[in-house]
Amino acid sequence: MLESLGHIADRMRTPPSIPAEVEKIREHINENKNIAMELEKLQPSFEALKRRGGELISRSSGAEEDPAAKSIQDKLDEMTFYWDDIKARGEERDNKLLDVLDLAEKFWYDMAALLTTIKDTQEIVRDLESPGIDPSIIKQQQEAAETIKEETDGLHEELEFVRILGADLIFACGEFEKPEVKKSIDELNNTWDNLNKTWKERMDKLEDAMQAAVQYQDALQAMFDWLDNTVIKLGEMSPVGTDINTVKQQINEMKEFKMEVYQQQIEMEKLNHQGELLLKKASDETDRDIIQQPLKELQHLWENLGEKIINRQHRVEGALLALGQFQHALAELVAWLNHTEELLEGQKPITGDPKAIEIELAKHHVLKNDVLAHKSTFDTVNKAGNELLESSAGEDASNLKHRLDTLNKNWQSLLRKTEGREQQLGAALQQAEGFHAEIEDFLQWLSRIENQLAISKSTGGLPETAREQLNTHLDLYREFCANEETYKNVHDKGRLLQSSRDDAAGSNVEQCVTLLEQRWQSMSTKMEERKTKLEEALTLATEFQNSLQDFINWLTQAEQGLNIAAPPSLILDTVLFQIDEHKIFANEVNSHRDPIIDLDKTGNQLKFLSQKQDVVLIKNLLFSVQSRWEKVVQRSVERGRALDEARKRAKQFYEAWKKLIDWLEEAENNLDTDIEISNDPDKIKLQLTKHKDFQRTLGGKQPVYDTTVRMGRSMKDKASHADDHPKLDNLLGEVRDKWDTVCGKSVERQHKLEEALLFSGQFTDALQALVDWLYKVEPQLAEDQPVHGDLDLVMNLLDAHKVFQKELGKRTGSVQVLKRSARELIENSHDDTTWVKAQLQELSIRWDIVCKLSVSKQTRLEQALKQAEEFHNAVHGLLEWLSEAEQSLRFRGVLPDDVEALQSLIDLHKEFMKKVEEKRVDVNNAAGMGEAILAVCHPDCVTTVKHWITIIRARFEEVLTWAKQHQQRLATALSELVTNAELLEELLTWLQWAETTLIQRDQESMPKDIEQVKTSITEHQSFMEEMTRKQPDVDKVTKTYKRKAAEPSHVRGRKNLNQMTHPPAPTTMPAQTEAKNPQINLLSGRWQQVWLLALERQRKLHDCLDRLEELKEFANFDFDVWRKKYMRWMNHKKSRVMDFFRRIDKDQDGKITRQEFIDGILSSKFPTSKLEMTAVADIFDGDGDGYIDYYEFVAALHPNKDAYRPVTDADKIEDEVTRQVAQCKCAKRFQVEQIGENKYRFGDSQQLRLVRILRSTVMVRVGGGWMALDEFLVKNDPCRARGRTNLELREKFILPEGASSGMAPFRLRGRKSKPSSRAASPTRSSSSASHSNHSCTSMPSSPATPASGNKVTPVQGSKLRRPSYHSSKVSLTGDNGNSPAASKSGKTDTKRTTSRPTSRAGSRAGSRANSRRGSDASDFDVLETQSMCSDISESSTGGSQASSRRSSSKPSKIPTPAKKTTTPKNTNTRR
């Protein structure tokens, strides 16, 4: 017991380090539980030993006085200390492991979920559509990215929590596991940083795209405005004059006008260039149409303007010629030719920068167009000059001829120079584009190389992986070096271009070349660093592998050496030699402690830097080596301890043996030297006295001899070394021979002394000495002297008796001599010999008694030996069987689930119990033999025999207890299986009945009477209660299988955002767990099926009851009562009818469908039913067209109110203008005056402007485009524009709630809009494209709502959803991608058509409608303005809700998508 507890205590005192992985922690917990179970099974033996030890101590004289009792008490104290220490350490380690397990489960699960979420979010950001080309689309993309960022920032708290968990786990786990946790945290941090970097790159791209798009839109709008103004200015020029001064003035005016047009034409070419760049970024045809159509229309306007300018110029020049001013016209043409030629000659050659060349090429195209435009002027002047030549003569004709020739020559030269300049610029552009393409290709190649370097950050931890990585990198490195020549060529070409161009143009090339140099140098550095790093990693991995292999080889040799090492010898010389050998081995083991530490450090370093698959291998290798090393160290320590113990025992025996042998040799020498016997009786008596003293000393050595022999026999029995048995036999034989020799010589000398004393005439003394010896040995041979005991004691007693018999045999001669001397003395003596006869008779009697007692003792010893052998065999046979029984009971496996298998186990255990009962007889017999021996036992052996009796009884009772416990466990399991099987059959029968009943009831028609329905509900409720009562039975049947199923991993509460709430479902087995019993699966499936059928039946009954109650209430439906109740509810809610209607009217066209009306009322929480709302909708829809407009809505709620409804477009315009102007509460109201139909004057300038209806929106003609009336007033009415600055208008977009398209309006300075003002705002302006295109769709509540066009399944466990910003490919309308207004397809109005049924079309249309007005007009939030004006009357909304067909006025110059296709809306689509 002490040895077992000692081993367990050693294991508990030096436990292995706590791992960080969940599975390994569970393995350690199971190992700890196994130790606890092992301790629990030792509990009976422990208690029995404590009880028996206490009994033995109580029977003794006390631990302080009795050494044996003190020894027992010390061992009991040591055993109790071990026991308590093991229990305390086991509980402490178990608690610590459970805490670390909980921590590890939280960390690894949360880290994996968070890592997946972050990676998925990064993929979402990477997969987002490329930046759009329309500002509204880009703004929506920015908002989508911002939404992702907000949700991502929400993960930062979880990231910090995981970091804290990781730090706690690092602190709790062992040194061997810490690098892995650190690496996981570093991986999580790197992923988080990559996500932030990806998001920042996305936002930078969107910002650049937004800036480019806004600049392009502003430039486009400015160009349209300038063209409109220029056309007006050209049209307002005075007619061609009839006098020379007027014509000359008009010619100068045309020159100035053309110079202005020339500068704008350069801007036009730049705009075309920007458009081409945007076209390259366009992803679909719609985006291309958005860019191309305005440019085509702009080009068309330019062509018209050019034709008008040329026409005007020809008419002016024709007038000049008609007035006879040929010379002036010729001079003008020559001056123009000279000026143009100077311009061509003054232009410098440009190379290198494609943008600069394209600008120069654009300028040259303008110049070329001007030259071609003067072709007609040149022909006219030539024609006029030729006519003058025909009518002139002389010197005037020759001068004119010369001037005309010069003119023609200059014209041809100008044409050649123009063409040459164009070819030169074209060649330069081709060269520059080629150079930049080479640089771009090379930079892309460098980016690809850089990406390849960035992908492989971790190095290989094993030589094979590291070598493979190095070879891969060397291939990449060789590819990099192979492209060095290309780099030099491109670099030299760039330097050459840079040296051949001016400073302004050279800056771009210099930037490209500098960037190329920086990227090349950076990449070269990275390649070298990566190469060096991989080489170092390969070296480190190779050194680690070699060191590890060397250490493994040494471990193998050490293990083999320990395996083949001879067991500790019990011979002193041999064990000392073994100790010396082991000291050398121990020193070798200690010398390998530093290498294992270095290996551990190197392995941790490699694990921290290596790939994951290598980390696992390195970790397993290190763990294996560490485990083997610890085992070698432990075995070395154990062998050293065993050798030391063997040395102590061998030394103790050897010292005792040596001391005894030395004394025996000395005694033998003394006996040999004292051979001479004196003839003097006195001296003989003296010698006899000395010899008696020696015999007493020899007798005193008898216990020492017995102890030494017993010790030698014990060592011989326990000796495991092959050479120990013969050596110990020799030692024991030697000491036995010496002892026998000394005893024999002692007896022989005494015999000689007695004979000498007898021969010297000292008959009386010799006779008295012999009688004294007989009296001395007689008590030792008495019948009452106990000779029984264990085998060792009886054999020792037998050996001692054999020695006595030898001595008795040797004294036989002395007795015979004495008897003969006595007879001679009696015969020859003349004195009284009576005393001699009496002494002789006494001697004969004593001698016969001693001989008989010696024979009797021999017989008793033989009987005791036989009894001891039987007891010894019985005890050890029982102990062997008990050990086998304990092993078989200790390692019982998990009980089977099958009744037959369990019954077979029970039968086997019954057979085992029969054997146990049979062995009880053997135990009783052995204990009886022990008790019989105890009754006549030698005092020295009482404790030993009692110990054996206690051992066999305690061990048997322990085995019997375990067997009964296992029998009880088997019986309980069998009864549970039988009970569960019966319950399972009962449940399946009931479920079959319940399923059939529910199906039959579902097939029956629902009753029409409310009372019958309530009765059915009551009956079904009873059924549900019965099912609930059976729920514990189902749990009882299935819990065993659930407990045996695979335990799910620890899941911390990360809830799904879209999780729905359901009624509590029955507790059944998990879907992924399949029980071995198919009936359990059948029960689980049927239980779920019946539960679902019951819930469905319950729902149908309640729906039927609700429907019948609604019908009962609807039978007395009165619309007037409903209307009054609704109006009271509206007043109680402090709501207005107008606001409610506009909230339902998502597209703000003044009409809603019946379904929109019903859903809007029901969603407003007004207490009504769908049945009532169907009747109410019929009343509201008076004309039966399927739509309810605002006037029908108001007329139904206010039947006595005569709603004014404008009929014509002019009436609608007048109504809307009046409503808008009435919002101004200034003392001096903004002036608006109607001049005629669709013609108004606005403001102080009283400028006449056209007004029309476009898609239910009143539009004002501004420049070359149209602007919504409310935005026009916001821009021009001072009181509405108060607090607004142009700087604020360009800061950022704010898309209001409910809007999804167009350039979003901006906030005012000094105040923030409230959500309520947005939610209840009146008609939206066209700044959000609510009127400029079709009806506006509302913005989804979150960009995380997936759209139909690009549906994405969210990742489980992730808090993010893939954002769906608005593009031509992704719909904003929810499930089906159609706008809410799509349900109004019943109307054939042209305003019901749109290019695509998505909100992006609206947003594009809005942005295009706004782009014509300039950014400052489109950047103001009308909602803010309306929230500022508090006195908006309900009656003023009529005009804004009116709808009309497109007017016949000039269309917008930036076309809307409605111009391209007409797709009718689908009436079945709803948000």
How would you describe what is shown here?
- It is a single chain.
- The chain has 1471 residues and is an all-alpha fold.
- The chain contains 42 helices and seven strands.
- The strands form two sheets. A five-stranded antiparallel β-sheet has the order 3-4-5-6-7.
- The relative contact order is 0.05.
Strand content: under 5%
* Fraction of residues in helix: over 70%
Largest beta sheet, briefly?
5 strands, antiparallel
Return the structural class.
Answer: mainly alpha
Shape: elongated
The end-to-end distance, rounded to whole angstroms, is: 80 Å
In spatial order, strands of the major sheet run 3-4-5-6-7
What is the arithmetic mean of pLDDT?
A: 75
* Number of beta-strand segments: 7
Give structural attributes.
1471 residues; mainly alpha; five-stranded antiparallel beta sheet; two-stranded antiparallel sheet; 42 helices; 2% strand; elongated; disordered C terminus
Write the layout of secondary structure elements.
Layout: H1 2-13, H2 22-41, H3 43-59, H4 67-127, H5 135-153, H6 155-172, H7 178-235, H8 244-281, H9 285-322, H10 326-346, H11 354-373, H12 375-391, H13 395-455, H14 463-482, H15 484-499, H16 503-564, H17 572-591, H18 593-609, H19 612-673, H20 681-700, H21 702-718, H22 724-759, H23 763-777, H24 791-828, H25 834-890, H26 899-935, H27 942-1003, H28 1010-1044, H29 1078-1114, H30 1119-1132, H31 1137-1144, E1 1151-1153, H32 1154-1163, H33 1170-1180, E2 1187-1189, H34 1190-1197, H35 1209-1222, E3 1232-1236, E4 1239-1242, E5 1247-1254, E6 1257-1262, E7 1265-1268, H36 1269-1276, H37 1286-1289, H38 1315-1319, H39 1399-1411, H40 1415-1418, H41 1422-1428, H42 1438-1441
Antiparallel strand pairs: 1-2, 3-4, 4-5, 5-6, 6-7
